[in-house]
User: What shape does this take?
Amino acid sequence: MRLHKSLATFDFIQLMDKKFSTPRFLDRLISYVESVPASDRFLLRLAFFAVIAGLIFFLFALNNKYSVLTPTSGGSLVEGIIGTPRFVNPALALTRADQDVTALVYSGLLKIGPDGELENDIAESITTSDDGLTYNIILRRDVQFHDNTPLTASDVAYTIQLIQDPELKSPLRGNWTDVRIEEIGEYELLMNSCKSNKAFWCFVIDFAIHIGMR
Assistant: This one.
């Protein structure tokens, strides 16, 4: 009994598939449209294309409503700046054009987040002493230069010492004259100054330290 019932169901599905298959259905519809009087043929054609257009519009609207945009890697970003950069070097950047380019190319210990507040960049943590004169800086271990060389505390110290070098004549040197750097470990260093001004330290840590390649 079950076998006969299954066969009957299968035969019914085949019959409906043959009767309402897409190619045959369209052929019959077109034949019907062409068989009506000329006065009605134009209206039927217009109605047919209106239905097709409405269906396409509905599918696009449905797709836009339920589709979700996801970011993909790759592509390019073009950013315009005012002026011509002279020094693409964080220790020598003087003009706004220089600073804009170095901010894109180099990374700092901190960066400005979407909410306008400072947040860690290449620094994993920065701890301030009670007197506000010493900063203990621990670097992230997963940061690398473009040649896959790992970033270490010596790279940060090197950049600061480069700024402090009077022969280089860095425009940032005046802010770093009294700052002392001590490497505690491969990824840890101390930054000490006789100044405890919070605004000064924000400038020092965020804007002045962009780590360059040796």
